[in-house]
Amino acid sequence: MSRNLQVAAASVLIGVIVLALKGAAYWVTGSIALLSDALESIINVAASLAAFFALQISGRPADDNHPYGHHKAEYFSAVLEGVLIVVASLSILREAYYGFLEPHLPEQPLNGMLLNGAATIINAVWCVVLLRIGKARRSPALIADGKHLMTDVVTSVGVLIGFVLVPVTGWPQLDPILAGLVAINILWTGWGLMRESVGGLMDAAPPPDVVGRIRELVSTHAAGAIEAHDLRTRHAGRMTFVEFHLVVPGDMTVAAAHVICDRIERALEEEMDDTIITIHVEPEGEAKHRGVVVL
């Protein structure tokens, strides 16, 4: 089992533990706000399972039907997670509405705070781990899972603060109002996840700093060539695809041009893991005098 799959499997286990703690917190208190937190944890478990299966698919090698690999499967996981977050937020809004119509003070508030607080601490620690590993391994599925947990941690802290204020103020309507605010917050997060994932499915380019670094490496290691133009890049899961046209002197041999291409590819692969590079070599008559200037 790969490192990414191990992390995804651990996310499922941790999600179940957190769900059990938050479910218990709602059970002993009857708080609508704590119910909203528990509902979000159900989505966490479902999303973690989706990420696990997506990582299994994305790790498969290229085949005849998928010659560029299966890396985009991770984006489907992130889109699904965004959809699940939207469904959860609508469910929470429904519960908050009925809770506002028939408000009541939570029972056993101390036990509820302890259970929910323990779940929040576990989520906070695991969120940091997920984001760190996801960014290091450029995994959209793990990053999406980590961002969702980050939102869960923030909303859980807000729920706990509000939960303390309910018995202090003696205003039971504060509980469903807080649940509604949680729903709006996670709805915004779900929209952000879907927007980023759709960008990946649409072959969006890497961040400008990454594209700039690619241009710099091509310029520095293309000695002997004239120019490079029509540079195009895209992301597919953890993979970065780079392609461009390399213009060389008309009397240069194929072997000499191949040496330049090898040098550029080696430089890009050393700097950027999981990179697929395609270079189209052209004679100097095809020069466009724009694009990447060879140093």
TrEMBL record:
Protein name in UniProt: Cation efflux protein
Top-rank taxon, per record: Bacteria
GO biological process: intracellular zinc ion homeostasis
Similarity comment: Belongs to the cation diffusion facilitator (CDF) transporter (TC 2.A.4) family.
Residues covered by the Cation efflux protein cytoplasmic domain: 206-284
GO CC annotation terms, alphabetical: plasma membrane
Source organism (scientific name): Azorhizobium caulinodans (strain ATCC 43989 / DSM 5975 / JCM 20966 / LMG 6465 / NBRC 14845 / NCIMB 13405 / ORS 571)
Domain Cation efflux protein transmembrane per the UniProt entry, residue ranges: 10-202
